[in-house]
Amino acid sequence: MIVLFTDFGVEGPYTGQVQARLQQLASGVPVINLFSDLEPWDVEAAAYLLPAYAAGFPSGTVFLCVVDPGVGGSRPGVVVSADGCWYVGPNEGLFAILARRAGCVECLELPPAVGVSSSFHGRDVFAPVAARLARGLRVEAEGVSTACLEKPDWPDDLLRVVYIDRYGNAITGLRASKVDASQMLSVNGHQLRSAQTFSDVGVGEAFWYANSSGLVELAVNQGCADRVLGVEVGTVLSF
Amino acid sequence: MIVLFTDFGVEGPYTGQVQARLQQLASGVPVINLFSDLEPWDVEAAAYLLPAYAAGFPSGTVFLCVVDPGVGGSRPGVVVSADGCWYVGPNEGLFAILARRAGCVECLELPPAVGVSSSFHGRDVFAPVAARLARGLRVEAEGVSTACLEKPDWPDDLLRVVYIDRYGNAITGLRASKVDASQMLSVNGHQLRSAQTFSDVGVGEAFWYANSSGLVELAVNQGCADRVLGVEVGTVLSF
Amino acid sequence: MIVLFTDFGVEGPYTGQVQARLQQLASGVPVINLFSDLEPWDVEAAAYLLPAYAAGFPSGTVFLCVVDPGVGGSRPGVVVSADGCWYVGPNEGLFAILARRAGCVECLELPPAVGVSSSFHGRDVFAPVAARLARGLRVEAEGVSTACLEKPDWPDDLLRVVYIDRYGNAITGLRASKVDASQMLSVNGHQLRSAQTFSDVGVGEAFWYANSSGLVELAVNQGCADRVLGVEVGTVLSF
Question: What is the nearest CA distance from B115 to chain C, expressed in angstroms?
Answer without folding.
Answer: 32
